[in-house]
Design a protein that fits this description.
Blueprint (H helix, E strand, L loop, with lengths): L10 E3 L10 H9 L1 E14 L4 E16 L2 H10 L12 E10 L2 E10 L7 E2 L9
Parallel strand pairs: 1-5
Antiparallel strand pairs: 1-3, 2-3, 2-4, 2-6, 4-5
Length: 131
């Protein structure tokens, strides 16, 4: 069996897909992805429903950084309902942003919340599992 090919950029996950989440896709990421560690990025986290949404901003958001196979990255796009096959405007967009793993900066994919946040609750801790 050949080793998996990894997507060009790591992926930063900050909500229901983090390692401590019981969600089945979070378990799949932990089993099939290459976990790089807990990371953080500049931004703000909002409670959308039973899940959060990240937008760029002045605070810090805590999450997990993974390297994924292209197939697993496609599964995340499907979970977030963005990309080909989904009608726009999407709730999330996959973008590239800088994240920090310890003191090292990395460029990573992150799913940005793509709707207005005015009526949402800001999660001031920046950690979905601490609020």
């Amino acid at each position: 069996m050949s080793p998996p090919r990894w997507a060009e950029l790591p992926v930063f996950v900050y909500g229901t897909l983090r390692r401590q989440s019981p969600h089945p896709l979070a378990r799949r990421l932990a089993d099939e992805g290459r976990y790089l560690g807990e990371a953080r990025c500049r931004g703000q986290l909002y409670r959308v429903a039973h899940y959060p949404g990240w937008v760029p901003g002045p605070g810090w958001v805590t999450g997990d950084l993974y390297r994924l196979s292209p197939a697993l990255l496609a599964a995340l796009d499907s979970y977030e309902e963005c990309g080909p096959g989904f009608s726009e405007p999407w709730e999330y967009r996959r973008e590239r942003h800088q994240v920090w793993l310890g003191k090292e900066a990395h460029l990573a994919f992150i799913y940005r919340y793509n709707r207005p946040t005015g009526s949402l609750t800001l999660l001031g801790s920046g950690d979905f599992f601490l609020t």
